């Protein structure tokens, strides 16, 4: 609900448990009066009677850091989310309020520069307690250079301390949780790679340093953008803190021409109480309700052939794998790299999206038909934003790649990046994939993007245009082929964000499938993103990435925490392992609705001897618990693991043993899973309320 107090120029944006209160001061600056627990309009208006007197700071603006639209100009010396340069060299903006548009869920506050014909609209949209924001810039004068246009600046209240939570990583080690005291000055999280990146992810959480998994207030924001980005956390000496996030990165600028409009991507913000667990569950719920295109679906158990075959792809080999996968209970069979063009190694073929005539002389149809006969859906790996210099596409259109005159074209992974900001490239991309899907009964695309931009130059139209065209192509393909589902992949977890999730059904979390490493990767991933989108593979032992040997059950129980998939060389697995894998797939299918659509509780984080995660049905009637022991030390017995959010008066039956537990006991003393002795022991427990 959005309430407007015209007398006091006050707006109150309220969800079920939180409110965001804005006030236009005498200089038309939108000051954030409150972001936190829900207030009534009367309570919000009373804040204007309690404005503290600014202290004696003759060389500072005492209100710096309290506005949710911060433009360069005046005494703004900190982070400014809106920065422009007019044709005459003027950089300051002087914005005046020109009006509002408002519904129960949407608010638009409009501003115009006092002199130059540039207007700015601040858009707000309520989804429960989540507020989505973006800017719209319109220029009717001479071209304007835009140096920065952040989607939103979030103003936090004063707290006793400030701790910044985010994820860090690299290829094969993505989304590892990192929390640290927020230092004074500006802390910048960013990607300059043209994609979301493995190294950072465009979200942040801030608490006062005392919040835990299930207690404390948490302020968070997330940017819905799949290209380069920047998120700046600013802590001023006055103890004001802001989070400002937007597309693009320093020092790139772009020109807003006469009559042009620029719409920033969405940045969403959320205040929650109940610790990091409550914040995560609220973000998960928001994505399941308002972001994912087919959120209500149950994602199928997937098999991917890459680790079994590499580039050695053949019709007979894929059919043998498909038959083994079907016997295991797999529902979606995906052929990875090596099926197209001259792609018998990684230096050729990218861009030529037709079946290799030697490997598939009759096209993909016979393989697809066999997969469908086995009762599975069929999927295909593509990397359509890339091209190998050794390809028909590059020989025909060498100018289509991102490059700069007089500079060498950096080949990484023997690849170059197609410039999707060029209309002819975007048109080709859509036509090519549309034809591939129209001619073949393909149900699923694994859409990969394996290298960052190089030689991209300073033109932000390329940095923005590439992502916008990517979104447009995905939207058009989904409209033309509504049965096709898409996975976002970028050398693993290099393109995971709320922008790509509006157009895809799941993401590939990491190329690292080592189950022990995955506990940390998946823990960080779950801080913002739901299990419903988290692809998790069971692969061979020793692990092809780390060489670590881990039992089959442990590998499965780690992968069951998301969208279960198998990626091993099944033709080399023992009969005992194949039979046990089929049992574990069946176990996962029984708890899959809880994992993919239930509420997640991180009971024990990875790092200790035990880690555990719980999934609870919306009505509280079922729970699934995954427990992992990475190593047993000193012969200590495993402690009980208290569960969460159960009915204390309820009775819960273990579906495997038939044992009945009292809810109050599970909440206090916990479960005592029957783990095998030694390292890498694990268990799945499925409880049903009687």
UniProtKB/TrEMBL annotation:
It catalyses: Hydrolysis of terminal, non-reducing alpha-D-galactose residues in alpha-D-galactosides, including galactose oligosaccharides, galactomannans and galactolipids. Residues 29-256 form the Glycosyl hydrolase family 36 N-terminal domain. Substrate binds at residues 171, 336-337, 413, 446-450, 489, 511. One of its GO terms (biological process) is carbohydrate catabolic process. GO terms for molecular function: alpha-galactosidase activity. Its EC number is 3.2.1.22. Residues 611-687 form the Glycosyl hydrolase family 36 C-terminal domain. SUPFAM superfamilies: (Trans)glycosidases (SSF51445). The active site is at residues 448, 511. It holds the Pfam family Glyco_hydro_36C. InterPro entries: Aldolase_TIM, Alpga-gal_N_sf, Alpha-glycosidase_related, GH, Glyco_hydro_36, Glyco_hydro_36_C, Glyco_hydro_36_N, Glyco_hydro_b. The keyword Hydrolase applies. Keywords: Glycosidase, Hydrolase. The keyword Lipid metabolism does not apply. This is Alpha-galactosidase. Belongs to the glycosyl hydrolase.
